[in-house]
Inverse folding.
């Protein structure tokens, strides 16, 4: 999942659930105004978790692409051997 897909999901949420979005923004704004120190800590923790999640997702999609490539090559090799000779 790339950044573009994530932004599309957020855009969809904002456009289709306006009341929930407004309540969320007002609640976050009030918490930032009245509990500034704890909110900055929370935002820092969320930023670190977001970066970790993004890196893990990026690595996972890379290994998945490698596995698909390997499976395709194995199938291609089996197909070419199967059409040339039969192993009986």
């Amino acid at each position: 999942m790339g950044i573009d897909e994530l932004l599309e999901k957020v855009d969809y949420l904002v456009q289709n659930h306006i009341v929930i979005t407004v309540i969320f923004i007002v609640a976050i704004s009030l918490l930032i105004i009245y509990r500034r120190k704890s909110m900055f800590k929370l935002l820092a923790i969320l930023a670190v978790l977001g970066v970790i999640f993004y890196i893990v997702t990026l690595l996972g999609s890379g290994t998945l692409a490698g596995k698909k490539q390997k499976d395709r090559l194995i199938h291609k090799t089996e197909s070419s051997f199967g059409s040339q000779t039969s192993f009986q």
User: Anything to note?
Assistant: Residues 24 and 46 are 16 Å apart (CA to CA). The chain is about 90% helix and 0% strand. The longest helix spans residues 36-84. The two ends are 46 Å apart (CA to CA).
